[in-house]
């Protein structure tokens, strides 16, 4: 029995959705373990596009169990609307194919509002969040005042829990000059949504233990990427959860030894949404060309993504932190037709050369990339399913990336379609 974890190795949007979907054909259970409906995973299946934010990517596959772990923050209203939206596309979601951790913390409307209020008041120092309430919900979880899924079972005890939460939030709201939250209104909303989410609520740790003992294969699906990790990312321009592999254990309720093969998802160039440092960002025509060719618009917010050359120094750093065994290189076809390509090998910061990005915000902002230039290719890589299908220079680019990041390529994805993959090593192979 082998399990597998999928981790984004850049700033998210590496194309994890397609790879998780592809891998889920080999898995029995797909588990999300962090983040919330800030994630945006796009799956293209037989030409039909499925957009997922909160639900695990395995949900569109028949016969798979999808699980939302305790490390995820769940907006129950967004949960309902995503299930209804997918239902309208013919994806049947019931308690047979979806389970939710009863100990997961909820995102409430007041979290989303606070996220927006803070971003609005921050001026130039805004984070550029997805405004889904992710940060405020994780703060309440760590502050021990969150409402959790299991709390919805006992509406009598919900009142005092809401009081505790509102003592904190209404003070903040006064500071922002907005109306306090009305307790009865919030209680009413929660009572109404409880009936929808509660049937899915189970002790996920136990369900996963049963799955393990039955020899089932588990796929752990990360959201965002290592550079958005609250500890290891480009802080403070990060999300509010740990996105690294270790979180798969804590955020699902399994032992670290259960995680298995760690697959890092790496885009063949770099993108970022939101604010924060981005040493290889291209603010010229080349950046625009990458964005257009790669359709680089956010799945969740529709924001245009910032684009730049591949940063091997940052990816190497991410892969080491996340303990990645092999990578899936995605969107190689976006580089088709460039005369030459650059790869960042390190940085100059204040006259010193670094082969990694130091943690300080000022140092990160000052980092100037050091590049190696490689020849491009004019033929198409779209739909390639073997090395022989790749132009020679494209294969060389992949090999050079592999050397620089000090990690082998397990898969190369060559189009959004599910089956357009060059497989070097099956992550689920025993
Ligand atoms: P938050 O997660 O909404 O608090 O946003 C914090 C930062 O993470 C912002 O820069 C967002 O753009 C970024 N972010 C959050 N989720 C994703 C994602 O799924 N893909 C890419 N960036 C994300």
Structure report:
With 430 residues, the chain is of the alpha/beta class. The protein has helices at 16-24, 76-88, 109-121, 134-142, 155-176, 183-197, 204-213, 246-250, 285-293, 312-322, 361-366, 392-405, and strands at 4-8, 29-32, 41-45, 48-52, 65-68, 98-101, 201-202, 218-221, 261-267, 270-272, 306-308, 310-311, 326-330, 340-349, 352-354, 368-375, 409-413, 421-423. Bound molecules: inosinic acid.
- End-to-end separation in angstroms reads 7 Å
Summarize the biggest pleated sheet.
Answer: 10 strands, mixed
Biggest sheet: strand arrangement: 7-6-5-2-8-1-9-13-17-18
Overall residue-averaged pLDDT value:
95
Could you name the key traits of this structure?
single chain, 430 residues, 10-stranded mixed β-sheet, 4-stranded mixed β-sheet, 19% strand, binds inosinic acid
Quickly describe the structure.
By secondary structure, the protein is of the alpha/beta class. 32% of the residues lie in helices and 19% in strands.
Please write out the topology:
Blueprint: E1 4-8, H1 16-24, E2 29-32, E3 41-45, E4 48-52, E5 65-68, H2 76-88, E6 98-101, H3 109-121, H4 134-142, H5 155-176, H6 183-197, E7 201-202, H7 204-213, E8 218-221, H8 246-250, E9 261-267, E10 270-272, H9 285-293, E11 306-308, E12 310-311, H10 312-322, E13 326-330, E14 340-349, E15 352-354, H11 361-366, E16 368-375, H12 392-405, E17 409-413, E18 421-423
Parallel strand pairs: 1-8, 1-9, 2-5, 2-8, 5-6, 6-7, 9-13, 12-14, 13-17
Antiparallel strand pairs: 3-4, 10-11, 14-15, 14-16, 17-18
The protein binds inosinic acid (IMP).
Inosinic acid (IMP) binds next to α4.
